[in-house]
Amino acid sequence: MGAFVISRRFNDEYKFVFTSRKGKVIFTSLSYELRFECEEDIEKFKKSIDIARFLKFKGSGGKYFFKLMLGDLHFATSRKYTTELLLQKGIKEIINYAVKSEILDFSSNESIFGDEEVEDDDEAAE
C-alpha cells in the first residue's frame, strides 16, 4: 500500500507526496502555508478520487508526466516517467491504493531518532 508523506519545502511551506508500495514518489502536491491544509486536501482527495482527472504530457526532454486535477483545480504533478506504460502504472497505483493509504507526517524539525549522541567508530571499538 502507498502512503501520503507530509514534509516541508526549503521555504518552510508544506507539501505532500504520494509514494508507491515500493516507496517511489508518484506525485507531489502544490505548496501549503499550514500543515493541516495538507491533511485536509489528502482527505478530500481520498473522498473524491472518482472525479480525479489525469492530464498526460510529454516534456521537451522526452519524459512523460501527468497533472492530477480535481475538477478544474490543479492538485498535484507527477514525477517524470521514461515511458507511457510506466506513467500509466503510476496512475493505476493511485487509483488502486490512495484511498486506503496512510498519512505520514515528517514535517517537524525534530529528529525521529531522538537526541542520543552517536559514538565514533574509534570509541565503539575500545
Describe the structure.
The chain is about 25% helix and about 35% strand. The protein is an alpha+beta fold and about 130 residues long. The chain has a single domain (about 5-110), classed as Roll (PH-domain like). A 7-stranded mixed beta sheet has the order 4-5-6-3-2-1-7. A hairpin with a 5-residue loop joins β2 and β3 (about 25-30). The longest helix has 14 residues, at about 85-95. The chain starts with a strand and ends with a helix.
SSE order, as H and E? EEEHEEEHEH
User: What does the overall shape look like?
Assistant: globular
Cα separation of the termini: 44 Å
What percentage of amino acids are in beta strands? 25-35%
Largest sheet: 7 strands, mixed
Summed up, the domain count is 1
Order of strands, main sheet, comes to 4-5-6-3-2-1-7
Show unreliable segments: 111-115
Index terms:
seven-stranded mixed sheet; YegP-like_sf; PH-domain like; DUF1508 domain-containing protein; 3 helices; alpha+beta; 126 residues
